[in-house]
Amino acid sequence: MLDSTDKAILNLLQTDASTSVADIAESINLTVSPCWRRIQNLEANGYIEKRVALLNRQQLDLGIDVFVFIKTNQHNDEWIEQFYGALDSLPEVVEAYRMSGEVDYLIRVVVKDIKAYDEFYKNLVSKVKLADVSSSFAMERIKYTTAVPI
Question: HSE on the CB side for 41, CA within 13 Å?
């Protein structure tokens, strides 16, 4: 069970994972050693999966988010393994979900432009048989965060 100090540490780290232990400790009125132990404990218990850098997509010329809705008429283990393998092999796929409802899978793809998406699409459908694929292009990112509510 997380206490308020652990939650404060997690909130600080998910805002900026490069924050030093000393700065975190100061922010939550704790000394460095106990703060460091708490962070180690949070990592050991799986609350912190990993620490990453968020890149500037505009600087990398990757400005388009595409939401891809996939339907399949295959639901066997062999197809699922092939599909998951295809998604793993495509770096443009940044998120993938198995859905309830009318769509079987929803994936988010990040690409430079429409031409790059078309190349991605052709690559995807060459790797796995799909019943239906439809795509929507995000016009504007209104809210984006990697932080989860604690």
Answer: 13
